[in-house]
Write a structure and sequence with these properties.
Elements (H helix, E strand, L loop, with lengths): L5 H10 L36 E8 L3 H14 L3 E8 L4 H10 L6 E4 L2 H8 L8 H6 L23 E5 L2 E6 H7 L9 H11 L9 E3 L8 H4 L11 H16 L6 H6 L4 H6 L3 E7 L1 H11 L7 E4 L11 E4 L1 E6 L6 H12 L1 H9 L9 H11 L6 H4 L1 E4 L7 H16 L5 H22 L1
Helix pairs in contact: 2-14, 14-15, 17-18
């Protein structure tokens, strides 16, 4: 593990002094007047005006497994109605910020990662759930060890709903046609060479040996427990260099420009058989199975552990929680938390697992439900992997991630050299962290 930066130590110390904008417990919340509802859907299941209506916003990739949970909860309730709203996943973070700033009626909120949660919390828009967790004797051990890393100054502003885990997804038929053995416990160099071997053809029917999503840029550092606020950014730089090799030098992966200019759907490309391997999160399996059920694809896929760097222990990957939070101005905090307990507890976990999605709450029974739903022995990889937390629960980290993404894009598109991109990032990072220290 890399030594953490002096900057990080100073930041962490400063954050201890940041006051919480929302500290009321579930038992001490003053009911706010109802806000104007600019986006809620009609009541369902015969709900009437006597019900407490809670508007829950999340992104559209989650609808297939969250809707069954909402339906199950609503069926049990006589005084509460959950209305689910789904937004486009690609623009979710930006759109939800607009809605929150416009005082849209939002009671419950899906959040993709801890750094985004900190960003929203710093604006005073999330309810502090620490007392709710304590007063309801929630079994947080069922969320695993990463739960220890999501407290913000010792306070909790969201409950984990999903636990992401990156693996290597591959097309078995493309390996078979090339006469190449399926991937097992690869190093990144072995992955690179395999991708080159599996690449063939050109034009729109070109077979790419690999595909790397245009948004996870710091993987080489994360997998080795290094973060973007460390003094030593050599692993972050190595990450960009390796991705540029994939994107632009080897020709074994779709280029960054092609992916972004053409708004390529990796799901559709993989399903039509043009991608041999893709490092991806567990969510892609749910999507593939959903399309299989709809008769949209019959792709012959499987998974392997994420490749590792030379000398690194096999089975190490990265991931994070997805969360459900309660907004600070909801008029129904107790009802909202009751739904959160259902969604993020064993009831919700069983429904998720049955739909082929990994819930954050887990036990042996839930794991078996998931494995049965997926129907592949290799899916046990998700429960055996050694995951590194993908993000940090500190103010400003989402801004640092965004800055790194901007600089990475300039490099991948050939507008800046690697050294220029990293220099720009260090300057932007310094400005962000200095601003955070000043605000604290």
């Amino acid at each position: 593990m890399n030594n953490k930066s002096r900057i990080r130590i100073l930041i962490a110390a400063a954050f201890i002094t940041i006051g919480s904008a929302v500290l009321a417990s579930c038992n001490q919340i003053t009911q706010n007047p109802s806000v104007t509802d600019g986006a809620s859907s009609p009541l369902k299941n015969g709900a009437d005006g006597n019900k407490a209506v809670l508007d829950y916003y999340t992104w559209d990739d989650e609808e297939s497994y969250i809707m069954p949970v909402v339906d199950a909860y609503n069926a049990l309730q006589s005084s509460v109605q959950i209305n689910l709203h789904v937004l486009n996943s690609t623009y979710y973070e930006d759109n939800i910020q607009v809605l929150l700033s416009a005082d849209t009626k939002i009671d419950l909120l899906g959040i993709k990662g801890i750094s985004q949660m900190v960003q929203i919390r710093d604006k005073g828009q999330l309810l502090d759930l620490t007392s709710c967790i304590k007063n309801n004797d929630m079994d947080v051990t069922a969320y695993g060890s990463m739960f220890n890393d999501i407290a913000i100054n010792g306070r909790y502003y969201g409950i984990p709903s999903r636990s992401t885990c990156w693996v290597l997804v591959y097309n078995k038929d493309l390996f078979d046609s090339a006469g190449i053995s399926y991937p097992e416990n690869l190093t990144w160099e072995e992955y690179r060479q395999l991708a080159i071997l599996l690449t063939k053809g050109d034009g729109e029917n070109k077979i790419y040996g690999g595909y790397w999503v245009p948004w996870c840029y710091n993987f080489a550092a994360i997998q080795r427990s290094s973060y973007l606020i460390d003094d030593d950014l050599s692993l972050a730089k190595e990450s960009l260099a390796l991705l540029n090799t994939f994107y632009n030098l080897d020709g074994s992966h779709m280029s960054y420009r092609q992916m972004t200019d053409q708004m390529v759907s990796v799901r559709k490309e993989f399903e039509r058989g043009t991608i041999a391997m893709m490092p991806q999160g567990e969510w892609i399996l749910n999507m593939l199975m959903e399309d299989e059920r709809k008769g949209l694809t019959d792709i012959n896929w499987d998974i392997a552990p994420m490749p590792v760097f030379s000398g690194q222990e096999s089975g190490i990957t990265w991931g994070q929680y997805q969360f459900v939070s309660i907004t600070s101005d909801t008029p129904h905090p107790e009802e909202a938390f009751d739904f959160v307990r259902f969604l993020c507890g064993e009831e919700g976990a069983r429904i998720y697992a049955g739909n082929g999605i990994i819930h954050a709450y887990s036990n042996d029974d839930i794991e078996q439900i998931y494995l049965n739903a997926v129907g592949k022995e290799s899916a046990s990889i998700f429960f055996e992997a050694k995951k590194v937390q993908e993000q940090l629960a500190i103010s400003g980290y989402q801004d640092v991630l965004d800055a790194f993404g901007q600089c990475a894009e300039e490099y991948f598109l050939g507008r800046k050299t690697l050294d220029e991109a990293m220099s720009d990032f260090e300057r932007m990072r310094k400005d962000i962290l200095t601003s955070v220290l000043y605000r604290s």
